[in-house]
Input
Amino acid sequence: MPRRSRWPAHILLLATVAALLGGPTAVRPAALAADPSASDPFAPAPGRRPAAQAPARAPAAAPAAFRISGGGYGHGVGMGQYGAYGMALRGRSAAAIVGFYYGGAAARRVALPAAIRVGVLQAPRDPSTGGRLTRVLVRGLRLPGHRSTGTIAAGGIGKRHQAMAKGLPANVTYAVRPDRGGVSVFAGSKRVFGPTLAGTGVRIRYQEGMRLPALLSMPQAGRTLRWGRLEVSLVRERSAFRLRAVVVMAFNTYLRGLAEMPSSWPAKALQAQAIAGRSYALATVRKAGQHRARSRWDGCDCGVYASVRDQNWIGWSKEAGPSGGRWVAAVRATGSLAVVWRGRLVQAFYSSSSGGHTAAATTWGGPSLPWLPARADPDDAVRGHNPNHRWTVVRSAANVSAALRRYHVGTVVGLRVSLADGSGRARSVQVRGTARSVTLAGGTFRSLLRLKSTRFRIAPVATG
Output
């Protein structure tokens, strides 16, 4: 789910899809939606304005710990994925799920770009080293169902402005590196392609136009590519050349690699996810273009990032993974459907679990948007099968004090939600310490304490 400087993250972890969504267990169709009469400890009473958490009765001594009781996982804006799961189990259609979460919006057919640029690696960071990106490693792999290991091809513009191309055997790890003002491909210390014209990059083909196609492994990014082509370009940081890598592929092919919902979930939930994911990507591209921050050395030159900064795209391993065919079927079944509210394309944000109540767009400090309303989400619990519907953590006072050390409050002796919004999410948290007191934004507190959401309440745990 999307994370950008203005818009908070989809808070789904990258490691595995199951961990990403809190490890959902299989739910039999007989287990229908959450009990809509279940009490919600976080939401304000009907007709009452959002208020601060009432100050807890002061313990006899400074608390030894704090009990934080919360609900949900992620920012809670837009579609709740567990809620979509619960609605699908009740037999609701993908269109009904979309309409419920996006303020009555409809799933409508829209015009899609022929291709989308997906930023996989950026110059500021090589995931394998933590430093700047000075090389891009690639390796061709055998495509399932093919006897041959296949080939890959490097192409670019040569020093004399001529087109260059060369086939390269698979099962060899190649390093694409800056070289003599351009870019070259190396196998070990041997240059096997390049250098390209100064300031230009290289294209790596592994499927398009290949007689013996292959998969392309990108070990630094932890991704394997099946579709499209890889573009590795140069970017200058002061006097040094860095690299960035972008996959260019058909728009709906991009969706096949989204790892935002387990492929084993009900078909209608998967279809709703495909519609939301398509809508988010299309709205993002229409707003920012396909070459975001191209002129900046730390920009991606892409339409969407492959990470949760936009949507978690893992490439071939999604469709080739467990039940991956079901996810591909959902993408195909929804064609060019996107979320449209009264003729307007919606940037369809979503997160794992709303905790029983979605958040409005105002939770991020922006204006109210009718297609991103705050509303009760009774299907979020999925009859007890959502591990993140309700959660509790206990953090010692020492642990909390260490997490907040940058604010120089000393030992934390008091915490309370000083302002909550209409969905019960903390907008601000008052921190009382032995050195000073501060008020933090709810999102900041959540990040520092590594909480699942901002929908929480805090109680002191007395010493002894």
Q: What stands out?
A: The two ends are 41 Å apart (CA to CA).
